[in-house]
Amino acid sequence: MGLSSIGTATEGMQLCIFDLRRGQHEGQELDKILYFFPPDLPFSTQLSVIGLSEGLITFTRIFSPEAACEVIEAERHSHVFYEAEPDIWMVMIVEKSKEPEAIWRIDALREVLKEIHSLFIMFHGSIRALLDKEPGGGLTRAHLYPFIMDYLRACQKLSPLDECCWDFLVGKKLLLPSFCDCLKERRTVQMLTVGREAAIEVQTLVRLLESSAGNAQCSSLILFQDLLVSTTLSPEDTVNLFTYAVLRLTPLALSSGARSWSYLRKGNTSSHVTAGSTLAPSGSVSEQFYGSQDTSPAGDNRYCVVRPLQHGKWSKGKDGFLITDIWGVDVGRSDVTTPIVWLQHTEERMYLCAYQYKSLTLILLIPLSSILNGEQGVSTVKQQLLENASLKILKVEEKLSKGWGGENAYHVSGYRYLIVDGNRDISRASPPAKVTTLTKESLLALNRLREEVDAEKSRSKWDNPGRDKDLEVSIRAKNNAWAIARIIGGKELYMVLEKANETLLYASDAVEKFSNRYCSGAFSLD
């Protein structure tokens, strides 16, 4: 039985963001609520959920003041916590499945919360900064609501057969990462392996790109298809820009009828969580509180809210640069305004210029402080880029295309695997189409194994801070498949072997052969 036949439904899911510094006085309790899904629940229910979360946070701090609460397992629900910023908490509450095996992996759910927050900061800055700017909280709510709803709707289905793990929201249902996703790692980038000659050409192109803005300290990101080729950003900023590029900027993201094979995408295998409510009640009390819940481009007219995750808002211009009106239009020149992002590593605001040639996508980030005359200065940089780098762009795209092995380039016959380099936020995995051939029993076994590994890693982090723990675990699934985890020096390998011999020795030898051949340098990915 392949994955295409698997679907797990469960009732009820809640997602909230609240500030512990707010609403501590009687009559002001609503002030602490910054976001709540589903938004049309009575405020009494919202406050009850958040009050319980506050109590759990306070209680667990008695026993572990230095370690933030991460998860509370109740009889019917899992409460997943993430302290996004000091005293600003994101909490996801999911109802447990009636399946005997756990379908959720808690760390995977928490990664969703982390991804929402990281992308929000990249476009809007920190939540605390918005609260400081407008202490009433209206500005913050007006930004959070459309952003998260756009995130949940980020990849609209292109056909009845086309679902991806970005498409969390379908009607009233939320699609959350489940056991079907245990051979994927959110918040990592997928690299393209290139030869020495191509790598030299890429490095030359990087220097040409970053010299287009003169003496400004620019940064760049280069992708081929949906894979990262080069970056001069920090790992965290690279993950955020890569995620956004795969979602909205690459050729596959721009072509409305294309089905992406990216490792961020998958077949129709998600577990469903019923929201049980309409999502944008018009004229409701909650609308007055959160601001307009209209997720049309106009949005809330009381605030100027940029919505970077809107679908279908990017296109390719005649000169090859990608354009969007999300950030507005320059009235004086009738041109669209250049997007602006915020880098967490340098704490700088940067102009985002994206250029595309065939399967190659180039992203150039230019400090706002280095462009004195705004949009006119950005146009000058774009022109300089075309003059300096056009021929090199053509050459690099040609070389990468010749060396590209297609969607199954990283498939290894007989293996279904995931390799993660946590130090560099890089992962590589079996192509999604190959993973769908695995049985439900195999994936449930690997999901359970990853839960155990997550717990061991968490314990090790507090027992031996700064030191990675090496371990290897193998378990036998009900269908006699082997689920295997191996961690060495912070690099992780997860694998399923469904056609393995009955002995553990056979499975161990198979993993060793894979590691020696495909994970050279102790799981190095390039």
TrEMBL record:
| Pfam families tied to this protein | Intu_longin_1 (PF19031)
Domain annotation CCZ1/INTU/HSP4 first Longin: ranges: 16-125
Kindly give the InterPro entries that the UniProt entry links to this protein.
Ccz1, CCZ1/INTU/HSP4_longin_1
Which PANTHER family does the protein's record reference? VACUOLAR FUSION PROTEIN CCZ1 HOMOLOG-RELATED (PTHR13056:SF0)
Family note = Belongs to the CCZ1 family.
Q: What is this protein called?
A: CCZ1/INTU/HSP4 first Longin domain-containing protein
